[in-house]
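Annex B. Sample input.
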Amino acid sequence: RNFYMLGGNYLASFTTQEGEQVAFEGSIFFESGQFLNDAVADGGALSGRSEFFIGEEEQLENARITMQVAHMEEILFQQFRSFDLNQDADGNPFVEYSIAPNNILDEGAVGIFAGYQITEKEIVVDELMN
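Annex B, continued. Sample output.
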């Protein structure tokens, strides 16, 4: 099985009525859909869904979206998933918190040792609209 985490960011600019160039950027969040594995897909395509707004099409200049897919070891996937679940449960008295994994076996040590690889794809919004 392979484990993935989705993310991304956007960068765009626009010119105000006064002629000032204003740039803005932000992150793209996939909520719980950011965590994917191919256990069920069996070689098929994986996908995630996110909704975000970066401005009106006619006002944007140099808009770029960078999508990121992190391919990671299972223990790192479990670490991020545990952190995400615990954040969602914060303050809820009816939820049991997820215990984060640990693969550092030294006495008294807690943490994980794992690897990942990030693949990025930049999308130029102007090219999508034409």
